[in-house]
Write a structure and sequence with these properties.
Layout lengths: L1 H11 L9 E7 L11 H15 L3 E7 L14 E5 L12 H9 L3 E5 L9 H9 L2 E2 L10 E5 L14 E5 L6 E2 L6 E8 L16 H9 L2 E9 L5 E5 L11 H14 L16 H9 L22
Parallel strand pairs: 1-2, 1-3, 3-4, 4-11
Antiparallel strand pairs: 5-8, 6-7, 9-10, 10-11
Helix pairs in contact: 2-7
Amino acid sequence: MCLAFTFFSLAFAPAFVAAAEKTVVFVAGRDSHGFGSHEHGGGCRYLAATLEKGLPGIKTRVHAGGWPKDSSIFDGADAVVLYMDGGGGHPVNRHLEEVDKLMKKGIGLACIHYAVEVPKGKSGNFFLDWTGGYFETHWSVNPHWIADFKKLPKHPITSGVKPFKINDEWYFHMRFRDKLEGVTPILSAVAPESTMRRRNGAHSGNAAVRASVAKGDLQHVAWARERPDGGRGFGFTGGHVHWNWGDENFRKLVLNAIAWVAKAEVPGAGVPSANPSKDELIAAIKGKKVAKKAGKLAPGKPGVKPVF
C-alpha cells in the first residue's frame, strides 16, 4: 500500500514537474580493480536506472568503457557524471576544453571516486572551477577506513539522508578552492590515526595531512559547488566498493547529488529507491537483466562483499 501511494505521489506531485525533462549523461571508465571494486560500468548502469525510476521524467544515457568517441552523446545534457580511473591517465585530461565548453553552458558535473583525481596544474585548475575540489597527489590521501558522518548540512543533496557510517576508500585532505569559496562540504568526518600508518607517498601520506589528522580536523569527502556560470558541481570520494550502493543513505546522497547538479527538483525526502538485492548489483556489473528471484545483501555489512 505504501509503495503504491509513493508511486501515485511521484506521478502527480507538482514538485516532480521540474524534475522532468532533464538528461544526465554517465561516462564510465574501464573496470580496473577486479570484481566488486571500481565497477564503473556497473555503478553507472545501476545509478542511471535507479535515478530514472526514482524521478520520473529524468532521462539518462550511459557510455561505458572509456571516453565516448562521438561527442553527440552530450547534446542536450543537463549534467555529466564521471566514474572512472583518474590521475595522469584520467580520460578527461585529453578533453578538458571540450568539457569546459559544456560547463560554460551551465551543465552540471559530478565526479565519483577516482574520477576526482587529476594532475595538479591545468587539469586541477579546471576541476577547481568545475566542482570546487580534486585529489592532488602529495597532498591528498586514499586510505580505506570507516567514515562516521555524524552531522549533515542542510542542503538539497542531504534531503532524506540520515547520519551514517560506512567502510570505503574515502580519499580526503582534498585540494579545494581558497577558503572553500563557492564550495559546500556535504560529507565530513574525522579520519582515525590508522589512516596515517602508511609511509609518505603520492597517495599515502605527507606532512600536511599528518598534521591535519593529528589535530582531529574534519575531512571533507563529498562537496558541492555552485559556479558563477550557473552550473553546479559535485565531488564524492567514496565509490570504490560496488556493494556500498546497497546502503540506503550512501546511495540516496549520490542520487540526490546527481539530480541536483542536473538542476532537477530534489524531493524533500530525497530521491526514492528500493534497497537493491545482490543479484541486482551483480546484474548491473554484467549489464544483464535482474533475475526474478533476487537474493538479498547481508544486512549490517556495508563495505563488504555480500555473502553468496
